[in-house]
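Deviations from the work plan: none for this task. Representative record:
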Amino acid sequence: MTYFLQQMLNGISWGSILAMLGAGYTMTFGIIGLVNFAHGEVFMAGAFAAYFALYAAGLPFGVAVVIGILGAVVVGLFVERIAFKPVRGSGMITLFITSFAASIGLRTLFVMLFTDKAKPFVLPDFLDGAYILGDLWVFKRTIAIVVVLVVVGGLLMYLVKKTKTGIAMRAMSYDMQTAQSMGMNTEKIIILTFMIASALAGVAAIMWGVSYGRIRSSMGMMPVVDAFIASVIGGVGNVFGAIVGGLILGIGETLFVAYLPPELIGLRTLFVWIVLFIILIIKPSGLFRANIK
Amino acid sequence: MSAELLLELEDITAGYGKMMILHGLSMRCRRGEIVTLLGANGVGKTTTLRTILGQAHLRSGGVKFNGADISRLPPHKTAELGISHSPEGRSIFGNLTVLENLRAGGHLLKTRVELKDHLGRVYSLFPRLKERRGQIAGSLSGGEQQMLAMGRALMSNPTLMLLDEPSLGLAPQLVKLVADTLTEVNRTGTSVLLVEQNARLALEIAKYGYVMEKGTIALEGDSQQLSANEGIKRIYLGLVDRVDGKSTSRGGCSG
């Protein structure tokens, strides 16, 4: 039982990171039909920005968090500008290809500059340590990660569900031209969506650093696939769905590995595809209502 | 007839990409009037509306609204000037609730008070929308979706409302509701440009009408004049079958 609970906590921690990454992913997926592989590199860039703020500049943790988020936003906007804006409206496949190119390009650039060796992301003191309940270790960092997901996720839900901008984002996901005829400045709202999505990737990157204590140039490669799947499971463009999808994948993956005989652990990456497959058979448009036509 | 000009289309050639659909089309709407644009399928009625909205490719000619040239405005700017659109096939946001659709229509409103006012007005025109406000718009019936499309276009309290085939596919009592609503909206100060295939309905509520053929205006005049015109009677008012063999008359025949 303790083993299960311990693994659950690990799963929730990993799931929260995927949820944060998936929430950003699904926003740009919904609004311009973008399957964005470069989201993983935006995530990685955020981690590097925070890393350099901490270790090269010696800034306090709180400042490093802000710099990590800003770093992700800058890289996210840069990618939007060079890879997506020029080909916007030319269809999903074209966007898919340019996002792939941007992803590989950025990753290669970071590997060239900083190699792919793991870099330490040391916990600040206030996140170090654990509460011990019987045999169960509840790490402070796990609590922090969950709290961040709840708070940021809550704010995001409010933005998307209740505000004028959020309604405009969802309306645009469904029908861009009609949205424009209502006076929505779609260009501005698309840029804003990219900024928010990238900021969420930055938050996820800090969560990752705090959770695993190291970062590397290739760290975005696999999680972005999970984020993509989380957003499909949750219904494309549905932020709440992507958060739930991310948690399902994170918890599922962790338990899958925890209970499988060691020789089968290599199948870990297969797990998310199995989940996707099963959910899409039961509900082809995802667990929650998609925001696209 | 002395009312000032609100909308002027001058010698428009427009279409999509390389294909031009409108050829030298000119028309005008006066402030405070309901003007209708009639014509068979595929003559370019929708494209005319899209040209006004900046959604089509305008090759030559000009569009003036309130005396100002709007031909090169980006699409979201026309709404700021007070032009709203209830598109063909309704184009409601099926992923949003009824209330969210209406809020989307009021996107440019500055204050909550204005939003509440206009919402109240739309709900009083279409009480059904109030009942259904929490429902996902995609699950509404066709008639309710039409009410929503019109309500959404009214949320901005527009100066000019463009409507594309609002009666399409509606039951007779709903067609009447659409007509009554347009008359009421017009009475409270909104000018209307109504694209319709249901010429009987359109000429009943409109003051002035244009008839399109092959991308240009073939005929224009006061509604009574047009209703009395032999060609119009024959082709659009269902006194005989239309050219393509289908009857357009929904309200029964009368001489």
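Chain A has one domain: 2-282.
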